[in-house]
Structures are given as structure tokens and as C-alpha cells.
Write a structure and sequence with these properties.
It contains 17 helices and 16 strands. It has 520 residues and is α+β, with helices and mostly antiparallel strands.
Length: 520
Amino acid sequence: MAAASPPSTSTSARAAPCRGNAALRRVSCSPRFATRGAGFSAVVVGEPHRAFYGNQFGLTVPLFAHYGVELWVPEIGGPIDPDNEAHELVMSVFGGMSKGERNRIKLRVRTAMAAQTLLEGRYLGGRPPYGYTLRDLGPHPNPAKAADGKCLRGLTPDAQTAPIVRRIFDEFLAGYGIFAIAEGLTANHVPCPSAHDRTRNPHRSGVAWSKSAVRVILTNPRYTGRQVWNKQRTDEVLLDVDDVALGHTGVMRWNTRDKWVVSKEITHPPLIDDETFEQAQALLTRRARAVNRQERHRRTRNPYVFRGLIYCAACQRRMQGQYNHGDAYYRCRFPNEYALANEVEHPRNVYLREDALTDPLDTWLASAFTPDRLEQTITAMTDAQPMDQPSPITAAAHVTIAECDAKLGRYRPALDAGADPAVVTGWIAQTQAERARAEADLHATQSTGPRRMSRTEIANLVRALGDIVTVLRDAAPADKAEVYRQTGLRLTYQPETQTVRAAVDLSAHRGVMVCVRGPS
């Protein structure tokens, strides 16, 4: 959309145009930049019903008024007056129009996807389930996508993993438990789903089959040959209920089975029949009801001071909280969740009592952060940091980007030499997608990777903690948990020696430190 430059009394001022829904992000920071010499004193919005959604205008316009930056809208006929009720009313109407249009588009898209799944059984994207792989079914039905070389895709059985899916269903209906099935697969050296496809599961260890992996396979109706959609939904929740101006964020949640959309006809080769799948669901339901009756009275919400901070040295997984006879414990039951089959040595159960750790830890923190030892602690934390080294993911991403750029440079001469444009277009699309993935990996590594902190940074963070260590002994469990989290505490329990290694990593929390106060 076009952006006009408003008149200004300043010769150096210029207008910053806003386009589309990105306007909110742009205008939220533009006034600050204007005060720092960015060179503009006004923002022009060509289509306000696309720039502001819901109440975003009301949350944004105070920034413009504060920094003296004008907001120009064609429908107003000039700059918006923050004190003019008519202007505010008009912009509120535009915000409502934007919200309504967004909801209508979302409804149309979801309705179309549901119809395509129910009537056509079309594969709508996402990762293929274990046991299947993707194949091309011909040109895409959308002419624009077909012109770009995109094809309609569908599921086809994977020669390596499809027999494993059938084996899981057969053994489950024969009376084997989920964990027994996982143990058998691991003992037979069958790669688990994350080990079979490492490219899409780099965050998992892939050492063995888990109960959850077997359960997911047993509950997936796609193995009957029908397409399924709407198993998950995205809910918008407030980032902070105490500060609604921060907006919303999307949270993925599971839908109940009655909300799923299942195709009427079989659309891809089935691995099991409908009767086998329904028998497996009925058996799972009976077993789940029996377990729920036994555990229903034991499920209570209890505070855990070290929630998410204690790791098992044998498997490097977080230990789970559990209350026994009114006392808090932390346990690791890795062998009960993963069929190790002698791949990893791990005790059957690892338990650590909370109160056996609290007093020694509080004493250590109090002694390390006392005024007479504060400088020594800061020096030790500075020296203990690892040296900055390039990540293997970063190096691989740079190599991939360079290779993709070289490929893209060779495609134009191929077109000039008379190559098929459709084929070359497909190559370009595939290479660009590969380059985009590498750039995303590079950005994620750069934004989340560890960085050595200077002594000054560590000193500032330590002093920002204040005197909270002096109230640890008498603080409430929730306050203690916040203290430990703010210090970047990590506890590693060694079951063989029954010792705990405590480490503090302030580099994980470089934001604003909030002092936790003890009881008055």
C-alpha cells in the first residue's frame, strides 16, 4: 500500500510507512528509534484495518504521544489526535473489523481443511507417522502451486518400519504390555522412531524404545488407511494475566477424539484393518481405567523446591518429584520408561529426599555469597566458563548455505542453456527451502547458544540477587524455588556414591533479577 509523507516543521523529519499486520511490531519500536536519531517523526498507515487488531491501537498510541511521533491515517484525513474521541472511535472500529476478518479467514481455512480431509482424504502436511513415508501423487491441484513445481503428496508404507507397526499391534492384542513390547523391540535392535529418523528428532537420544512411542503408534488411526486432521489445536493465551498489554501467545493442545476429522474413505495403503485398531483402543481404555482407579486418590499438587533442577547422573534426565508419607522425594525411573535392553546401565529406581539436600545447599550458597567471599566467588564463576567455540550445528549451517548459494548460481545458466523450466523451478524451490532451514538453524544457535560473560556482567547479576540467600532457611517453598531458578542452579545426583554436585550458571538468566523476600 502507498505511504504518503506528511508535512513537517522539521527539515530532517520523514515518515515511516507501515504495511499490513507487521505494523504493530514496527510502530511499537519506531518512536523510540525516532528519539535516537532514526530520522523520522511520523508513521503513515495506509490500511488501518490491517495494521491494528482488536485493541492494539489503544495499547500502541500512548507510545506515539509519549515520544511525539505522529500517526497518519488516510481515513482520518491527517494525523491522529490522541485526545480526540472521534479518532479513537474510528480506530477502534478498524480494530474490530480486523479481528472479525481474521476470524472469518481462520474459519474458512479450517472449514476447507476439514472438508479436504473428510471428503478427499488429502494429506495436509506435517511429518509422516512412523511406518510411512511420503510420495508424489502428481501436480498440485492449486494451479499457482503447480506452476511453482509443487506436487500433491501422500503417505506410502515404509519398507523398513511398516512391519514394525504391524508387529506392535499383533503383540499388544496377543497380551503383551506396552513396556514388554518396547523391551522386545530394543532387544531385537530395532531402531526406535527417533533413531530411525535422526534428522527430524535431533533433540532425542534414540537409545531405546519408550512406552510413549509404542502408545502413540497404538492410538494413531492413520494406520487404518484413513487421513486424520485436527488432533491438535492452537489456543491463544495471555502472556501475563497481570499485564494484558503484553498480548497473547499460541499454545498447542490436544483435542479429544470426538473433535478429530477422519476421512470417509481409505486414502493410503493401510497397515492394519479397522477391527484390529478398534480392539487395540478398547484394550487401552480398559487398562487405563484400571490404572486410574489405583492412582486417583494419590494425585495431589505438592510444592517441590527443586522442580526441574535435579538431574540423574546415570542418564542426564531430569528427576521427577514424588511425595511419600508426606515427604518430598525426587526419583528417576528411566528403565521403567525406556526399554534399555542392556544398552545403558541404570538403577531400576533412583530416589533422593528433598530435605536431605536443602540444608547443605543453603549453607553452601550462604557461604559462597557472603561479603568476604563474594569477590572470590565471582572470580571462580568467571574462570569456570567454557571458552567460546563454534557449534557443530553452526558450522554445518554455514556449509549448507554456501552449497545452496552455489547451486542457485548454477541454475540460471541451466535455464539459459535450454533446460526444462519446470524441472529447474523444482530444483530452485527445493534448494531455497534447504537454505531457509539452514538459516533457521544458524539463527537459533546464535540466539540460544552460550556466551562467555565478563566479570562485570557476573558481578552485576550476583549483586542484583541482593541478600536473598540470608532468607533461604525461613523462606516459603515457592520463594526458595524462585531463588534457585534465578541463580541458574543445576544439581546432579550420583546414585552410586549418593552425592550431589551443585553448579550455578548465572548466564542462563541475564534479565531483570527479582529479589525474593522472606517472611516478615
